[in-house]
Design a protein that fits this description.
The chain is an alpha/beta fold. 29% of the residues lie in helices and 27% in strands.
């Protein structure tokens, strides 16, 4: 986010770098501050080789400053560059028609467009934008992706990272952190649909060749989907409401992807790691939604000293996406 006048746009992320100074350690440290705990990852890159996940950890609790400080010390990440992937509860992400103003007037013009979306004064909002992928606007008008968060919240997160010993270089959002993961998948060439179940909601994200094409959030509870799948595995033929809703929403998202993004349907569906058992989910979706589906295993994409188990992958998946951010424009 634009925290200072000297901030620079980094790639096409909506939440931009707000510090130019680099850390003393190579690679990037990804952080997510969940309501239930803190995830920390670190990714190193060598040209021509898969990215290496050198740190992947999660600690439960609600005192973020203490937990993050402890994890940074534990993994000797002091002075490394930190990218915070915001939790969906910490920002608003939407599309708006681009105001017909000059670029330098854009932020002020957008403040009045987003006033109804927030419950605090527009003067307290930090706003950033990104160009929507060609052909994905809801109408023929020129649209922008807009991300909004409260300035005091952004300042607090910056302070938390700094006091933990990191050098914060950017805030980012789930939609674009997961995009970084999608670029490592073979399905990305023709298009891929991510399904990310959380305890309190489900998000579906469509990507092609590194472009975000569609983002949908729905009130489908991952825990209830898990319970219904367990019931099916035990021989109960009634799949349950949440699983039926999930199947319908996958089908709708595929249709939206094709019509709104004006592209062929995605070549595959990828289920992101979930902190619970989802027995047979990808098989069910392959059969019912008529799209090849598979679970994501980070171990198949990134090098690491030891395999990352599914529970830790689920806890750290957003932070992994943050650490995969490519920052070729940041001065070093």
């Amino acid at each position: 986010m634009r925290q200072r006048p000297d901030s620079t746009q980094t790639r096409d992320h909506p939440l931009v770098s707000f510090f130019k100074r680099p850390g003393k350690r190579s690679g990037l440290t990804g952080v997510t501050l969940y309501p239930s705990g803190v995830a920390v990852t670190h990714v190193e890159r060598v040209p021509g080789q898969p990215p290496t996940l050198t740190v992947c950890d999660f600690e439960a609790g609600n005192v973020h400053s203490v937990l993050l400080w402890r994890l940074v010390k534990k993994h000797k990440l002091e002075k490394s560059r930190g990218v915070l992937c915001l939790h969906p509860s910490q920002y608003i992400h939407t599309l708006v028609d681009r105001p017909e103003v000059e670029d330098y007037e854009l932020e002020d013009a957008l403040r009045w467009r987003i006033a109804d979306l927030i419950d605090y004064p527009v003067t307290e909002a930090v706003i950033d934008t990104y160009e929507v992928a060609e052909g994905t606007a809801d109408s023929e008008s020129n649209q922008l992706g807009v991300t909004i968060m409260r300035r005091s919240v952004a300042d607090g997160f910056c302070q938390t990272l700094t006091e933990a010993g990191l050098v914060p270089v950017a805030f980012d959002i789930v939609e674009l952190c997961q995009r970084n993961i999608s670029e490592l998948l073979p399905e990305s060439e023709r298009g891929v649909l991510f399904v990310q179940l959380r305890h309190t909601s489900t998000q579906m994200l469509g990507y092609q060749k590194g472009q975000l094409l569609i983002s949908r959030n729905m009130a489908i509870l991952g825990d209830e989907v898990s319970d219904e799948l367990q019931s099916l595995a035990e021989g109960n033929r009634d799949s349950g409401t949440m699983l039926e809703n999930l199947t319908v929403e996958v089908q709708r998202t595929i249709n939206f992807y094709s019509s709104r993004a004006r592209r062929p349907p995605p070549s595959g569906l990828v289920q992101l790691p979930f902190a619970g058992d989802l027995p047979g989910l990808t098989t069910h979706l392959t059969q019912m939604a008529d799209i090849p589906a598979r679970p994501l295993d980070i171990n198949a994409l990134l090098e690491s000293r030891e395999p990352i188990d599914s529970a830790l992958q689920a806890a750290a998946i957003d932070a992994i996406g943050a650490a995969l951010r490519i920052e070729e424009e940041v001065a070093v």
